[in-house]
Amino acid sequence: MTKETRLSLQGTIAGRIGFGCWQLAGAYASANGRPNGYGDIDEAEGIRAIHYALDNGINFFDTAIGYNDGHSERVLGKALVSYTGSAGVRPVICTKYEGWPGMEGLQDFAADMERNVDMSLQRLGMKSLDMLLLHNPPDDLDLSAMDLAPFERMVAAGKIKEYGVSCRTVKGVANVLEHGFGSVVEAVYNVLDRRYEPFFAHEAYARYTFICRVPLASGFVSPRTLAEDRVFAGNDIRSNFSSEQVEWVTGAVRSLAFLNELEGGITVSALRFQLSNPYRTIAIPGIKNVRQAADAALAMRLGPLPQDVVQRIADAVPEVFYKWR
Fold first, then answer.
1. What InterPro entries does the record tag this protein with (predicted)?
2. Is the entire prediction scored with pTM above 0.70?
3. Tens of pLDDT, residues 16-26
4. What CA–CA distance (Å, rounded) separates 110 from 250?
5. What is the SS3 assignment for 6?
6. Whole-angstrom Cα distance, residue 318 to residue 24?
7. Where would I find the H helices in the chain?
């Protein structure tokens, strides 16, 4: 199998490096008052970044209802409506619904999910979603008891094409695949955490598309981390990270400094790593400006890393942070 940079999804071609839209949600807080976004954004610059991505072969967009109460979807919708580039560009949209059967306070899962999908379509200005994912349900959610009828009704109505789960951890991924739920699964996968990888090649899961989130380790895989200790604003979710985690991640990134010697530097190289397997994976770096979109486009143009570099990454970072296990 060749290492293609594009995938066929329900007859639509999508680039294997996409556009993560969490950053477009701006600054907001979770229910407990802690920051849950990536700080302030320039919405106009975010829209320019989306247009740049579309002009340069990046057409897969991952967003969620929970990203600031749909604000990320609104920004993406504005960008898609105002795009005047190539008429042949077809955006591929994945969004996520914040609910599951048995969730506390949720009386009617099916009705609530369908209502939220309708609202997402309105915010996005779309008639159909390519993918709908349950957003971070419990890792041990009993998927064998899941009623598929609400999902299949939306497929039949043309509101969604595929469905699946965005998982909290690798244990959640195993649960989804064990029960054969849906055809899409999303989880963390990057140069510092490669535990998701064994699922890609498993022939029993060949029908799944694997979405790889935080491919830049929440922005830590960056020349800035090589040069200085990172400090984040109080409205940035990364300000919640423990000093122990930040110290480990910083050290791990610095052990990969050799990637900065390649064209585009460490950020582009880490995105090229995502293309270095031949499987049905799509990486979704968080993007909020044209510079970040340009890095993703350059990674697509350069293609996979040489295999000896991939092995060097594995040798440099053989284990994940112990609290992620």
1. AKR2_Oxidoreductase (IPR053135), NAD(P)_OxRdtase_dom_sf (IPR036812), NADP_OxRdtase_dom (IPR023210)
2. yes
3. 999 999 999 99
4. 43
5. strand
6. 33
7. 43-55, 71-82, 109-124, 149-156, 170-179, 197-201, 223-227, 243-254, 265-274, 290-302, 307-316
For residue 244, the one-letter residue type is E
Strand-pair partners of 187: 212
Task: Give bridge partners of residue 14 from the DSSP assignment.
Answer: 7
Nearest to 186 by CA among 281, 67, 98, 268: 281
Amino acid identity of 264? G
Question: 305 pLDDT band (50/70/90 cuts)?
Answer: very high
SS3 174: helix
- Domains, the chain, with CATH or none: 14-219+279-304 (3.20.20.100)
Q: What is the DSSP string of 178-195?
A: HHT-SSEEEEE-BTTB-T
- Condensed to tens digits (0 to 9), the pLDDT of residues 194-229 reads 999 999 999 999 999 999 999 999 999 999 999 999
Between CA 91 and CA 58 the distance in angstroms is 9
